[in-house]
Amino acid sequence: MTLMLLDFLIAPAYAQQAAGQSPGLFEAFWPLLVMIPLFYFLLIRPQMKRQKEQRQMLDKLAKGDEIVTTGGIAGRISGIGEVYLTVELADNVLVKVQKSAVSTVLPKGTLKTL
């Protein structure tokens, strides 16, 4: 019983046949040739697309937009600088945050319903 279980989990080693022809260059590297485009289309390309969308969102920020930062702070933009935004969290409560900390732009009027 245990031997059958071990054979199921670990493949038994058998003696190889006599030395034959070694695999060709294509046969040796085909997994690598398949993996490179796979990594590009599944990992690199979607990441570049997300970065482009984030950059476009940050470029479109305007005074009066309602935003949420990566830290979860929601507020209204009251001033825009080159690198920093002034965000109004409540009446007369202003906080400066980096533009890169903005995660989403909320639809107008969202803060009133919170």
UniProtKB/TrEMBL annotation:
<keyword id="KW-1133">Transmembrane helix</keyword>
<dbReference type="GO" id="GO:0005886">
    <property type="term" value="C:plasma membrane"/>
</dbReference>
<keyword id="KW-0812">Transmembrane</keyword>
<dbReference type="Pfam" id="PF02699">
    <property type="entry name" value="YajC"/>
</dbReference>
<comment type="similarity">
    <text>Belongs to the YajC family.</text>
</comment>
<dbReference type="InterPro" id="IPR003849">
    <property type="entry name" value="Preprotein_translocase_YajC"/>
</dbReference>
<dbReference type="GO" id="GO:0015031">
    <property type="term" value="P:protein transport"/>
</dbReference>
<keyword id="KW-0811">Translocation</keyword>
<keyword id="KW-1003">Cell membrane</keyword>
<keyword id="KW-0472">Membrane</keyword>
<feature type="transmembrane region" description="Helical">
    <location>
        <begin position="25"/>
        <end position="44"/>
    </location>
</feature>
<keyword id="KW-0653">Protein transport</keyword>
<keyword id="KW-0813">Transport</keyword>
<protein>
    <recommendedName>
        <fullName>Sec translocon accessory complex subunit YajC</fullName>
    </recommendedName>
</protein>
